[in-house]
Write a structure and sequence with these properties.
The N and C termini lie far apart (about 70 Å). Helix 2 packs across helix 3. The longest helix has 11 residues. Helix content is about 20%, strand content about 0%. The protein is elongated. The protein has about 120 residues and is mainly α.
């Protein structure tokens, strides 16, 4: 059998002038649809070892999904959702944040055992 591609030329270069096939490759609408409408950001989170099984259980085996689920279900002390999925919905209203005059004073000086940042 004779090879039609010269030794010093790659197969891709040899087919550069050939008509393109309509089979394979990217197609519009193909693939799994994204689970979220906004882009997800990869971050590193440090958790106690004992949290992992619980978060994976909440996420059906997926640790990230378990963390997202708990964030979406978190409530404020007033009973409203901490994370608003739909800001226009009054059920997701957050309590007003304390003003600087109402906020407790910031601690001054170093705390024992902690380094300043």
């Amino acid at each position: 059998m004779v090879d039609s591609v010269p030794r010093n030329q790659s197969p891709a270069a040899a087919t550069a002038g050939a008509p393109r096939s309509t089979r394979g490759g990217r197609r519009p609408g193909a693939g799994r649809p994204p689970a979220y409408t906004e882009p997800l950001v990869r971050k590193t989170v440090t958790l106690p070892r004992s949290y992992i099984p619980h978060l994976e259980r909440e996420g059906n085996g997926n640790l990230s999904e378990g963390i997202r689920f708990l964030v979406e279900q978190a409530r404020t002390p007033g009973g409203g959702y901490w994370f608003r999925l739909n800001p226009a919905d009054p059920a997701y209203s957050l309590p007003p944040r304390p003003r600087a005059a109402d906020a407790p004073p910031e601690p001054t000086g170093q705390t024992k055992g902690r380094r300043p940042r």
